[in-house]
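job 3f2a | input accepted
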Amino acid sequence: MGRVPKIIAANWKMNLAPNEAEKLASEILKSHSDNSCNNQVILLPPNVYLTSIRGIISNSAIKLGGQDCHFEDKGAFTGDTSPAMLKNIGCEYAIVGHSERREHHKESDELINKKAKAAISNNLTPIICVGEKLQEREAGKHKEIVSAQLKTILSSIDADKVIIAYEPVWAIGTGKTAKAEEIAEIHDFIKPLIKTAPLLYGGSVNDKNYKEILDINNVDGLLIGGASLIIEKFTQIMCY
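job 3f2a | predicted structure (240 res):
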């Protein structure tokens, strides 16, 4: 019996020039095809590249998603992108509640709940991020924090229609990764709270630690940042 397929989501964040994004997507597509990857790969490029990336991966099993979405389908919201717009250009997923949005845009759990509902109503699967800050982890409050986030965000939401990504804030883009036993503990805690929703891990995942993380019980996949921009590293991870 083979390995259960995982979800491998690539969050490119605010990176890459147009030609770099297209080259990366093309190389990921080629590697995905050449290696007959069984994992579900999701590319989450900057919004300005969504249409061109869709053109590259449109006839493949690779999926497309946005890095965020608004909670309204249209309106006077300068600079925002609605879930309806994402759906109309070929997206199937949208990240909501990433810690960088929480920090830099002051997003609350209540707002993230509204965004997740809007995504679902437009037939997008929200990838909902939760996780604690370093001082909360050190104070032993990580379970309390994550539980409270999930309670608010999943209020009036069918958990079968979402993906949850546990990303300890202190491990995102810092080079620090939670220890295997820490990931196992929190994933075992979260899983009963989200029913059958897939549970991803994110936080400085790279080509050196991904195998250990994917082998942990209740880790259904990965949300990858920096390593998803390096073709040699990402293709190694996505086809594991």
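job 3f2a | Strands lie at 7-11, 40-44, 63-66, 93-96, 125-130, 163-166, 199-202, 221-224.
job 3f2a | closed
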